[in-house]
Design goal:
The complex is a heterodimer of chains A (287) and B (292). Chain A is built from 11 helices and 2 strands; from the N terminus they run ααββααααααααα. Chain A is mainly α. In chain A, a hairpin with a 4-residue loop joins β1 and β2. The longest helix of chain A has 36 residues. Chain B is an all-alpha fold and 292 residues long. Chain B has 2 domains: 47 residues; 216 residues, Orthogonal Bundle (MetI-like fold). The relative contact order of chain B is 0.14. The chains are: A mainly alpha (287), B mainly alpha (292). At the A-B interface, α1, α3, α4, α5 and α6 of A face α1, α3, α4, α5 and α7 of B.
């Protein structure tokens, strides 16, 4: 690319050159500062005991064991609800409706809006609908259901792309063989679309783990080990928020929890982009 | 492509069943937005009924305990923080994307793009925490108190930067190669090509990116809540603490009852209306006239 654009000596070109490199350097430096600060302060506190012990003295000492359990339970509820709905919707949009049909267009537009809804509004909705109207109270179940609404657009979009990446010849051959569309879906399209589905799943998990605002008024603050899905449970991100804002002297443990959260997210994002570049490509070409 | 219509030709009863199951799931997914709007309105109704819409702008102050519900300072807070961060993040993000495409050697462009993707994945509470322990003390040294509009703008800038960069990156990638070759054949230097050929061609994608980042800036809650100081006032300088609409909800929802709670749902409705308007604008821009 760079070769097709000739170099020049005039001052405007130099100014632009400096600005472009300058902004890239600024962004990189900020990123390194942020990550470096968290790793530098957090690394010395993270240990096996920190990951498994219960928090003591409002989180100033002790670990994050019950919080990790609550976080995974919330995530589990979220995925158990959003996966079937998400995959079903994606299959319908990609395989069973034409792009022009009214139903398809309305669903797509509503998902576009849903993707833009601020997380605090999801929190308000979850509080009003799941906690109050359905009577679930502040519980892991309410939090997980709220998050399920939140990750649906992401999940549906990548799954749909996975299905669209499957060559049309698969469907035509299956139709020529007289296979039912259910069989085609289960035995041909679904396996071929798995990489797209996984990308959606991983991105959805990332979004769910990162979420704070939607959970404050749905899953609550309680940092004990949850005994059932109807107990209130504190997610990791809420723990960080609480330690840094409401607990004086909680900074050391807040740094360590932040580091744990960031490492989880980096791993998740790494997996997603690895799947997107290699998984999708390989599957579709060689199946 | 095979479509819904061809389903009527299928002899298999399972296909019919499957189709209805899928329609069911899609209906659930599609109605969530409606449910959200309905519940916001239902919960906001008591306040709209008892207080009335005009008083949210004309009351002397925001003191829900005394029945005073002026949302104006929070609206200004949201507006200032949003405008400031969009003004900084837009040039920075677009230049970053230009860097990836036209300035960086390939060995640098790939890692840089990955870095931006990583930035996009970092949760807002982490940005907020970093802002609270690093940025706020720095700002306090320049001009106390520290938690301020400036801190909010800077944190928001870092948070929405990936959105505009990734959108700009995608739309620059869609600029047809022959445009660039044509510019090169005319002997245009690099920046002149970008300015007069690439930017006009990628205009609609860039605009969509700006709209999406604006949406993110409006909706952001936790980071803003942690660094902005949360004093209900219209700021007179960028060093003054502010409170945004989103932070207001997060702060007061825990103990709000009755009309107070309903007033918070009214601000939720306001946020929702802004987002719907932005999404519709983005759709309108990105449809069709790409090179218009």
């Amino acid at each position: 690319m760079a070769e097709t654009l000739s170099r020049s000596q005039n001052p405007r070109e130099w100014l632009a050159f400096a600005l472009v490199w300058g902004s890239a350097a600024l962004v990189t430096a900020t990123f390194c500062w942020l990550l470096g600060d968290i790793v530098w302060h957090g690394l010395s506190h993270v240990s096996w005991t920190f990951l498994t012990a219960p928090p003591e003295n409002a989180g100033r000492r002790g670990g994050i064991g019950p919080i990790l359990v609550s976080t995974s339970l919330i995530l589990g509820v979220c995925l158990a609800v959003s996966l079937p709905i998400g995959i079903g919707t994606a299959v319908l949009l990609a395989e069973f409706t034409s792009d022009q049909s009214l139903f398809g267009r309305m669903t797509r537009r509503s998902l576009d809006v849903l993707a833009g809804v601020p997380s605090i509004v999801f929190g308000l909705f979850g509080n009003a609908f799941f906690c109050k109207t359905l009577g679930l109270g502040f519980s892991i179940l309410s939090g997980g259901l709220t998050l399920a609404c939140m990750v649906l657009p992401i999940l549906i979009r990548s799954t749909e792309e996975g299905f669209r990446a499957v060559p049309a010849s698969y469907r035509l051959s299956a139709a020529a063989l007289g296979l039912s569309r259910t069989t085609t879906l289960v035995h041909l399209l679904l396996p071929a679309a798995v990489p797209g589905l996984l990308v959606g799943l991983v991105l959805g998990v990332g979004r769910a783990i990162a979420e704070t605002a939607a959970l404050i008024f749905t899953s609550g603050y309680v940092d004990r080990m949850p005994e059932s899905l109807l107990d209130s449970g504190r997610a990791l991100s809420i723990h960080i928020f609480d330690l840094s804002m409401n607990v004086s002297g909680g900074d050391a443990n807040a740094y360590a929890s932040t580091l744990v959260l960031v490492i989880m997210l980096l791993a998740i994002n790494g997996t997603a982009s690895w799947l997107a570049t290699y998984g999708l490509h390989r599957k579709v070409v060689t199946v | 492509m095979t479509s819904l219509r061809s389903n009527t030709l299928s002899r298999w009863p399972t296909d019919e069943l499957l189709c209805w199951v899928l329609r069911g799931t899609a209906t659930i997914a599609g109605t969530i937005v409606l449910l959200i709007v309905v519940f916001l309105i239902v919960e906001a109704l008591p306040a709209l009924y008892h207080v009335g819409l005009p008083r949210f702008f004309t009351d002397p102050s925001w003191h829900p305990a005394d029945g005073l519900y002026n949302l104006t300072p929070m609206l200004w807070g949201t507006l200032f923080a949003m405008t400031g961060s969009v003004l900084i993040a837009t040039p920075l993000g677009i230049l970053s994307a230009v860097f990836c495409h036209y300035y960086a050697p390939p060995t640098l462009a790939r890692p840089y793009r990955r870095l931006i993707e990583l930035l996009a994945g970092i949760p807002s509470v982490v940005y907020g925490f970093w802002g609270l322990v690093v940025l706020v003390p720095l700002i306090a040294e320049i001009q106390p108190p520290g938690p301020s509009l400036l801190a909010g703008i800077l944190i928001l800038t870092i948070m929405i930067l990936p959105t505009i960069t990734l959108m700009a990156d995608a739309s620059l990638a869609n600029v047809p190669q022959q445009y660039l070759r044509g510019a090169a054949a005319l002997g245009l230097p690099r920046w002149a090509t970008i300015q007069s050929v690439v930017f006009p061609a990628a205009k609609s994608g860039l605009c969509t990116g700006v709209i999406l980042e604006t949406g993110r800036a409006i909706g952001e809650t936790m980071a803003i809540l942690m660094v902005c100081g949360n004093v209900v006032q219209i700021p007179s300088s960028i060093f003054d603490p502010i409170r945004t609409l989103t932070a207001n909800i997060a702060l007061e929802m825990a103990y709000a009852l009755g009309d107070h709670r309903a007033a918070l749902f009214v601000s939720g409705l306001v946020l929702m209306a802004m987002i719907v308007a932005l999404v519709l604008a983005a759709e309108w821009i990105s449809r069709g006239r790409v090179y218009g």
